[in-house]
């Protein structure tokens, strides 16, 4: 009887230790949830990763308002092994508080710097070490109704004069110049501010202001805000007038653009998917262009503003950091797979900032989307890039941009007063060491 | 076991203990912490630096805070008048209805049980310049509501308050109606014999007799107006140009958008003191013999 019991116990213990020793390391990843993309991400990223190897078991957990959810989890010393954040300004706070793990050893081990676009890699480097990797990049462009432009003999604008001349023609036809609106997402205003900073004051000046070599109160920035005020309030370029701009939401303005209510749509590259879908139901055709340059000091070539739409990081208290790094490396290691995933999401999400070449693209890719991906890579590689407020601004000055822009539009403060407050908040953020990294131009 | 541990009083405390325990950790402790945080520059994550009364000095210079306080006062005044008057009148009229009263009560109360997001979406759609009333009037050639009142700085606060009042006044109807049913019928019968008009009965019998409930409703309105947030946040996020910003909205923005948790705590402390003053005021009235 004792012998049987011994054999049984030996079997149980062996099975237990074998399971413990050889079981896959479990890595939990909290991701920002989006009903449209979650199933695809689960299938093409999480399930695919688990199917390809048995060393690490990845569990993807989709969370609403990730920033509100992750904060108490990190502060309590628990939380997932990996997590998303909305951007670099949040990482800076987490890094200061010691809540996020440095990934420098993994970056060196797996060669992530060589895989990522330079600016994207640098956006996650704080105090010389890598803390986050963008999981999506975006920039501001404008879409236009190609059929409408051809019918009317309009050319796409490249300068301020051309923009204003075209705007007059579009308005004479009873249409709005640009479709856009901020209902449901007040930070929409910062897209426009960033556009005017980069295409009027120019990326070089924005860069100098970001690193403190220029003041935000310098004339080029004040003039850029004044021009935006004029176009928004006096000219009603966006959806006809300021109040309608405040009243239209995502569906409204996309629908307005697709149904000839507006001739153009100035938006981020996340607009590719919805534009392609909406125009798919219409007889009109669409195309896109980089933003027109509104002032000679912004250079002559179009510039693409750099932006990261979400980042991935490793929790400082994770016990499976090595496993989490393997997950990240798997994601960054196959460009064709990465393009397939983002292609399934209309290139509006999971557009990893990797060094893509022509060979990586699916032959069936929409040529307009391919043109964006290759032109953006070339432009950003050759230094023709600008800066978005939501990637390169610390929290307080960033919120000021979209909250107080309304005060300028309301006529309660002047553009100069707006920029003076901006400068004050930047000075405060600089004194508090709250700035986010900006790679050297 | 000592007798006092098994006394009726002690047993009451045993039952209260779980609630007190949870209340301490969920409400009291964070509140005390907030009192301390208002003296720091904490961003919600990292180092906590003591800054003395700097946040309070900043608060009194903060033009948005001043604007928000003013809006909260306007908000409170609106809620103390419009829904109260309408609810009193409707409740009084309802007491005269014998058949189908339940239907009216349900209809008036219905918006109160709807989630705030639903109420807001309904009214945002009604005032939508393209699909709402404005678009409809435009098709008739009438220039009315062409711009959403939520999008104009002159009207945004009032438009948001209107939606919240639309949701709230049914609640007041129900509690006033409940109070009116407690009034002894013999008082009305005596008034009828004396030849009193409907208004005289309302003024000299109904109103004095429901005073405790009426005053309670005023206290509720004043206190609830301080942390008002959801309708403003959903409909306008405090805009345009802070024209509908209220104190709670400003606190949220400071704490969760600008990451100035220390400063946000200062705003919270000011709200706490304000509510304390209101409660204290009514407590004094009660001590003076007022039926409140």
Question: What can you tell me about this protein's structure?
Answer:
By secondary structure, chain A is α/β, with parallel strands linked by helices. Chain A has two domains: 24-137 and 307-381, D-Maltodextrin-Binding Protein, domain 2 (3-Layer(aba) Sandwich), CATH 3.40.190; 139-306 and 391-431, D-Maltodextrin-Binding Protein, domain 2. Chain A has 21 helices and 14 strands. Chain A has helices spanning 2-22, 38-52, 66-75, 88-96, 104-110, 112-115, 118-122, 146-152, 160-172, 188-201, 203-211, 219-234, 242-247, 250-258, 271-280, 321-332, 335-344, 367-381, 389-392, 395-409, 415-431; strands spanning 25-32, 56-63, 82-85, 125-126, 129-130, 133-134, 137-138, 140-145, 176-178, 262-268, 286-290, 304-308, 311-314, 385-387. In chain A, strands 2-1-3-13-6 form a five-stranded mixed sheet. In chain A, β4 (125-126) and β5 form a beta hairpin. Chain B has 292 residues and is mostly helical. Chain B has a single domain (38-287), classed as MetI-like (MetI-like fold), CATH 1.10.3720.10. Chain B contains 13 helices and no strands. The radius of gyration of chain B is 24 Å and the shape is flat.
């Amino acid at each position: 009887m004792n012998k049987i019991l011994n054999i049984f116990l030996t079997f149980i213990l062996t099975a237990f230790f074998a399971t413990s020793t050889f079981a896959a390391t479990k890595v939990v990843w909290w991701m920002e949830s989006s009903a449209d993309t979650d199933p695809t991400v689960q299938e093409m990223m999480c399930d695919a990763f688990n199917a390809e190897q048995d060393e690490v078991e990845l569990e993807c957990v989709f969370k609403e308002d990730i920033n509100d959810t992750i904060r108490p989890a990190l502060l309590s010393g628990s939380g997932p092994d990996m997590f998303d954040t909305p951007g670099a300004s949040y990482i800076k706070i987490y890094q200061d508080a010691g809540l996020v793990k440095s990934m420098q050893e993994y970056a060196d081990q797996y060669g992530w710097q060589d895989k990522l676009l330079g600016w994207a890699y640098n956006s996650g480097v704080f105090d010389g070490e890598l803390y986050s990797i963008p999981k999506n990049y975006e920039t501001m462009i404008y879409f236009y109704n190609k059929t409408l432009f051809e019918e009317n003999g309009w050319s796409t604008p490249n300068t301020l004069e051309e923009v204003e001349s075209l705007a007059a023609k579009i308005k004479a036809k009873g249409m709005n110049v640009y479709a856009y609106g901020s209902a449901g997402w007040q930070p929409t205003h910062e897209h426009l501010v960033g556009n005017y900073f980069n295409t009027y004051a120019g990326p070089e000046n924005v860069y100098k202001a970001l690193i403190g070599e220029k003041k935000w109160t310098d004339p080029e920035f004040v003039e850029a805000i004044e021009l935006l005020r004029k176009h928004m309030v006096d000219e009603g370029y966006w959806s006809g007038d300021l109040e309608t701009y405040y009243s239209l939401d995502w569906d409204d303005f996309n629908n307005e653009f697709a149904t000839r209510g507006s001739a153009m749509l100035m938006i981020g590259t996340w607009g590719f998917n919805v534009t392609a879908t909406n125009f798919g139901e219409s007889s009109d055709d669409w195309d896109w262009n980089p933003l027109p340059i509104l002032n000679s000091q912004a250079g002559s070539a179009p510039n693409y503003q750099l932006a990261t739409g979400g980042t991935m990081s490793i929790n400082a208290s994770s016990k499976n950091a090595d496993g989490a790094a393997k997950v990240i490396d798997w994601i960054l290691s196959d460009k064709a797979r990465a393009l397939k995933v983002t292609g399934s999401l209309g290139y509006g999400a999971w557009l990893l900032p990797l060094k893509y070449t022509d060979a990586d693209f699916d032959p069936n890719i929409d040529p307009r989307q391919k043109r964006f991906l290759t032109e953006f890579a070339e432009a950003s590689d050759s230094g023709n890039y600008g800066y978005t407020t939501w990637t390169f601004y610390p929290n307080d000055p960033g919120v000021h941009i979209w909250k107080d822009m309304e005060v300028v539009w309301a006529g309660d403060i002047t553009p100069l007063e707006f920029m003076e407050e901006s400068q004050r908040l930047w000075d405060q953020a600089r004194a508090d060491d709250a700035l986010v990294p900006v790679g050297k131009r | 076991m000592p007798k006092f541990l098994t006394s009726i009083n002690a047993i009451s405390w045993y039952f209260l203990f779980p609630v007190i325990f949870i209340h301490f950790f969920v409400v009291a402790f964070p509140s005390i912490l907030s009192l301390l945080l208002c003296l720091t520059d904490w961003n919600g994550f990292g180092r906590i630096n003591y800054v003395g009364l700097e946040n309070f000095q900043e608060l009194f210079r903060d033009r948005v805070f001043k604007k928000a306080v003013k809006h909260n006062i306007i908000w409170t005044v609106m809620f103390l008048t419009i829904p109260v008057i309408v609810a009193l009148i409707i409740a009084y009229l309802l007491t005269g209805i014998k058949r189908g009263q339940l239907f009216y009560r349900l209809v008036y109360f219905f918006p109160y049980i709807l989630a705030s997001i639903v109420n807001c979406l309904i009214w945002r759609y009604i005032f939508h310049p393209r699909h709402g009333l404005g678009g409809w009037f435009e098709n008739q050639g009438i220039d009315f509501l062409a711009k959403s009142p939520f999008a104009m700085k002159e009207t945004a606060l009032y438009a948001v308050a209107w939606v919240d009042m639309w949701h709230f006044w049914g609640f007041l109807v129900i509690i006033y109606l409940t109070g009116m049913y407690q009034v002894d019928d013999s008082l009305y019968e005596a008034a009828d014999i004396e030849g009193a008009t409907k208004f005289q009965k309302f003024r000299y019998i109904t109103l004095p007799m429901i005073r405790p409930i009426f005053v309670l409703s005023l206290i509720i309105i004043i206190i609830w107006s301080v942390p008002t947030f959801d309708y403003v946040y959903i409909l306008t996020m405090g805009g345009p140009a802070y024209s509908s910003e209220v104190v709670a909205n400003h606190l949220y923005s400071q704490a969760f958008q600008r990451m100035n948790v220390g400063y946000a705590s200062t705003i919270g402390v000011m709200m706490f003191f304000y509510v304390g003053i209101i409660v204290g005021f009514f407590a004094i009235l009660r001590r003076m013999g007022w039926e409140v």
